[in-house]
Amino acid sequence: MTFLFDIGRVLLDFDFETSLATLLPEGTVDAKVRLARLIERKDDFEAGKLDTETYITWALGVMESTATHDEFLHAWRNIFTPNGPMWECARKLAEDGHRLVLFSNINPIHSPWIFEAFPGFSIFHGAVMSFETGFIKPDPAIYEHAIAAYGLVPEQTLYIDDLPDNIATGKAMGFRSWQYDLKDHSAFEVWLEREMTEVGNIEHRTSNIER
Prior knowledge:
The chain is α/β, with parallel strands linked by helices. It contains eleven helices and seven strands. The chain folds into two domains: 2-13 and 82-210, HAD superfamily/HAD-like (Rossmann fold), CATH 3.40.50.1000; 15-77.
């Protein structure tokens, strides 16, 4: 069985604003506005439309920050907190022989660094990273890329993401999709058990037909 896992607010919680705020000049009165501008343009960065140095230079200018590029890299990366229950679940799925694929809107500051910082990602069998494809979720093109790259059968693939628009596209593409809530992991566990039973039945019927 194959699982598509989003990273942010599924495997790792994150907080950009608190970390990036440390780079703002003391006494900045419009901090929220400046940080919001950084996040708004993050989509272009994650779609591979901006290289790292261009984005950092632009971001430091928006913040009117005197921080170095290395200091920006540190702040940009120092945002993650592992979601223990989901990691436990992912490890169990991997141990049981299921195929796990990361499916993330992510930028080249976080990838491949994130795999070095969190060695647990080694349990995953592959990854679809937005900045490498030129598309970001919820664009159907990145879902089509994932299907082609990993030979996915959507109706037999379980997809977990935290954003409603991403889940809407996942469902439209035929994936068995769940909008994950960090505050309600137990609801995900109930869904997971039900869906795995259904997909297992489909795979069993398909196996019998092929024989």
